[in-house]
């Protein structure tokens, strides 16, 4: 099991982020504003953040943050999340993952 798999576990929404990243802040705010149950890992604040960042890059995350997992599936970064939002597809994903209840 990879580090990322163990961190994502059975959590409905996981965001790998950095405090210094403004796009990370935007993505976190968007998802949290729906009242979603979000787990955030700030890679520039946790001890193994550099290792996780390397693993995200190896998985094809470019840039490596923000990296959003919903329902234990990698969804994508900023562009993908905002595209889903504009197409009214983000909320159904969050509901399916049991991150929000409507």
Automatic annotation (TrEMBL):
<protein>
    <submittedName>
        <fullName>Glutaredoxin-like</fullName>
    </submittedName>
</protein>
<keyword id="KW-0676">Redox-active center</keyword>
<feature type="domain" description="Glutaredoxin">
    <location>
        <begin position="13"/>
        <end position="75"/>
    </location>
</feature>
<dbReference type="InterPro" id="IPR002109">
    <property type="entry name" value="Glutaredoxin"/>
</dbReference>
<dbReference type="InterPro" id="IPR014025">
    <property type="entry name" value="Glutaredoxin_subgr"/>
</dbReference>
<dbReference type="GO" id="GO:0005737">
    <property type="term" value="C:cytoplasm"/>
</dbReference>
<comment type="similarity">
    <text>Belongs to the glutaredoxin family. CC-type subfamily.</text>
</comment>
<dbReference type="InterPro" id="IPR011905">
    <property type="entry name" value="GlrX-like_pln_2"/>
</dbReference>
<keyword id="KW-0963">Cytoplasm</keyword>
<dbReference type="Pfam" id="PF00462">
    <property type="entry name" value="Glutaredoxin"/>
</dbReference>
<dbReference type="InterPro" id="IPR036249">
    <property type="entry name" value="Thioredoxin-like_sf"/>
</dbReference>
